[in-house]
Amino acid sequence: MNENSSQTIKELSENQEIKNSSELDNDAASQNEEDLSFEKSDIPSADSSSSRTNTDFDNAGFTQEEFASLLGKYDYNFKPGDLVKGTVFALEPKGAMIDIGAKTAAFMPVQEVSINRVEGLNDVLQPSESREFFIMSEENEDGQLALSIRRIEYQRAWERVRQLQKEDATIYSEVFATNRGGALVRVEGLRGFIPGSHISARKIKDDLEGEYLPLKFLEVDEERNRLVLSHRRALVEKKMNRLEVGEVVVGNVKGIKPYGAFIDIGGVSGLLHISEISHEHIETPHNVLNVNDQMKVMIIDLDSERGRISLSTKALEPEPGDMLTDPQKVFSKAEEMAAKYKQMLFEQTDDIEEIPTASNEAE
């Protein structure tokens, strides 16, 4: 008998005692004189038919209707979406039976036991274990509720990844599959997607399965069930920690577009925009650059928030147009020109600091 039923019977019994206190006092003396001995064979087993017969309410001091009425007062109002405490009392092939204090034991299907793949229920649950469960639906026709652990883990996983995104954290996750669009990983039990454009240029997509990659969050949208990550951005951030504006680096041309060329500089790509190739006008980058060309470029901007590195060869030209007429000259004098560029930036900064403010003029 559960706690609610015990409490109900206790109340009814107390009421009856008040009504019949004098009768009980008279019966007490005679009751002590009765022989209370019994044989073990008189006790019905838990499986015997006599243990399942209706209670004799006629001799209980209250009616069955009164019992049912009071029992209803203590029944919990379980609703879908609620979290309840429950105790596992049976593990079955298709799920687990959970005691949550309701009239009928609740049931948790095996597919709701975890957000992660498990071999069996006993990988997650043990008999007599008490924990929190999520109510998935209203009672069925048998008065039984359906429960879930997976829904709780799912909600908490989204809370966790939102917090990680807010902190701009770098995480590591194993690639478990690839497709035409990119690669698939799991983060806090949730399935995440890495677009092909956000995988390092040095990684062959089809060989990624089983590799642990550093990743940054691009999109976290629980409503649309979208979790998008970037391997490239994580690498760029790591690389950026060792780079600085005005630095000259050696790279290789990995791709050419109408708007510029992508240069691989140590595993990450930087953009050499068409406007930063030369002081002279250029119709298309294809007229100046070829894929796999090795060249020196100068870093002119580092955008860690968007994972972008902006490059320039224009700033390295000894004379305007050298990238078109004598690119080898640009290569050989790159460090010298970069030093002049840094000095120019330094002087510009000093000039800005020396500009008097309105408050200084007033003084």
From TrEMBL:
Tree of life domain: Bacteria
MF annotations from Gene Ontology: mRNA binding; structural constituent of ribosome
PROSITE patterns: S1 (PS50126)
Comp. bias regions, Basic and acidic residues: 11-22
GO CC field: ribonucleoprotein complex; ribosome
Pfam families, per the entry: S1 (PF00575)
One annotated GO biological process: translation
CDD domains: S1_RPS1_repeat_ec1_hs1, S1_RPS1_repeat_ec2_hs2
Region (Disordered): 1-58
Domain S1 motif intervals: 81-150, 168-232, 246-314
Biased composition (Polar residues): 1-10
Keyword line: Repeat, Ribonucleoprotein, Ribosomal protein, RNA-binding
Function field: Binds mRNA.
Stated family: Belongs to the bacterial ribosomal protein bS1 family.
Name the UniProt record assigns to this protein: 30S ribosomal protein S1-like protein A
